[in-house]
Write a structure and sequence with these properties.
- The protein has about 130 residues and is mainly alpha-helical.
- Helix content is about 80%, strand content about 0%.
- It has a domain of about 90 residues.
- The longest helix is centred in the C-terminal third of the chain and has 23 residues.
- The chain is elongated, with a radius of gyration of 19 Å.
- The protein starts with a helix and ends in a 7-residue tail after the last helix.
Length: about 130
């Protein structure tokens, strides 16, 4: 079991210790922000301007990727293809790491949702 799986298990264990009303509040928060690894991978596979970055809410990376792709396309015959090739080389590994990237994002969402739940109910925020 890797570190991300262990972190997810620890977070899920903390969630199960919440009271039912607290757990319901937690799941409402979590469900609004949790992401699907397959959707992320599909958006990355399309590679149309960093859609996968927008999907995870990483707007700056998405905008930079989009601007670079547009600039590369507009100047393709003048060497813009090099910019597109560089973007592809940077983004391709993310396609193969999509499960890990989204799991890391989702673990962060879980931790933030758990913290917000504890704060909302006035509970001590442990772990």
């Amino acid at each position: 079991m890797n570190a991300l799986d262990q972190q997810e298990d620890a977070l899920r264990s903390q969630v199960t210790r919440l009271e039912p009303v607290q757990r319901q509040f937690y799941y409402e928060l979590e469900s609004q922000r949790i992401k699907d690894p397959d959707t992320y991978a599909a958006l990355n596979y399309i590679i149309l301007g960093g859609l996968h970055h927008f999907y995870l809410g990483r707007w700056l990376f998405g905008l930079l990727n989009l601007m670079a792709m547009v600039c590369g396309a507009l100047t393709f015959s003048l060497g813009g293809w090099v910019l597109i090739a560089i973007i592809l080389l940077i983004e391709l590994p993310q396609l193969f790491r999509s499960q890990t990237i989204v799991k890391q994002h989702n673990n962060q969402v879980m931790a933030e949702s758990l913290h917000a739940t504890r704060r909302h109910f006035g509970l001590t925020d442990f772990g």
